[in-house]
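Sequence, please.
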C-alpha cells in the first residue's frame, strides 16, 4: 500500500548555487478512503490483473513498449503498462468495462478519448498507470502487429520485439533511442533462448 504521507527527501543533485539540503517537510496526500496511488513501476501482477479483466470482456489488445518487453523477459523496469488497441468502438466499450471492473475511475474526457480511438490515452486514476495506444509510431496497423505478436506464458498477447523496437525508434526521443540499443541486445538473447 502506498503511504498517505512521507517526509521529503534531499535532492540527489543540485544546480550551481542551490543548497544541497532541505528541511524535512511532512507532505500529506489526501486520497479518498480505499483509493491508493498507482504503483510507481510495472509489475507482473498488473499484467495478470489487466489480462484477466480483458479476457473476461473479450478485449482485443497487445502489450507493447517496455512493459511488453518485460513480459518477454527484458530485465528493465518501466513506470506504466502500455497497451496497443485497435480503433474499434465495440472493442473500446469492452475496454471501458474491463478497466472499471479493476478499479479505474474514468472521467468523461478519458471515456470519450477511448471511445473515439485517440492516438494515446494516459490513465493514472486506477490501480496502476496505463497508456492506451491506438497508433504507436513505427507500426503500420494493429492487424499487422497482431499477426507478428506472441502469446507469452499462454495469456499475455505481446507485440513482437521487432515492433516494440520499431515503435521506440520511430519516436526519435533520446530516452527511447537509448532503450532501442538495450532492446536490440535483449532481442539477440531472447531469440537464442527461443531457438534452444
Amino acid at each position: 500500500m502506498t503511504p498517505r504521507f512521507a517526509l521529503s527527501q534531499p535532492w540527489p543533485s543540485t544546480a550551481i548555487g542551490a543548497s544541497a539540503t532541505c528541511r524535512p517537510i511532512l507532505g500529506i496526500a489526501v486520497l479518498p478512503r480505499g483509493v491508493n496511488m498507482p504503483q510507481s513501476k510495472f509489475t507482473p501482477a498488473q499484467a495478470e490483473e489487466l489480462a484477466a479483466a480483458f479476457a473476461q470482456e473479450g478485449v482485443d489488445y497487445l502489450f507493447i513498449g517496455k512493459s511488453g518487453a518485460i513480459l518477454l523477459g527484458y530485465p528493465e523496469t518501466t513506470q506504466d503498462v502500455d497497451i496497443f488497441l485497435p480503433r474499434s468502438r465495440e472493442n473500446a466499450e469492452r475496454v471501458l468495462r474491463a478497466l472499471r471492473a479493476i478499479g479505474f475511475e474514468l472521467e468523461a474526457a478519458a471515456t470519450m478519448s477511448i471511445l473515439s480511438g485517440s492516438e494515446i490515452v494516459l490513465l493514472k486514476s486506477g490501480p496502476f498507470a496505463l497508456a492506451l495506444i491506438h497508433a504507436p509510431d513505427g507500426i503500420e496497423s494493429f492487424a499487422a502487429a497482431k499477426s507478428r505478436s506472441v502469446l507469452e506464458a499462454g495469456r499475455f498477447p505481446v507485440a513482437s520485439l521487432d515492433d516494440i523496437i520499431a515503435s521506440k525508434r520511430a519516436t526519435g526521443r533520446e530516452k527511447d533511442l537509448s532503450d532501442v540499443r538495450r532492446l536490440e541486445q535483449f532481442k539477440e538473447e531472447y531469440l537464442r533462448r527461443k531457438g534452444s
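Residues 1-33 have pLDDT under 50 and may be disordered.
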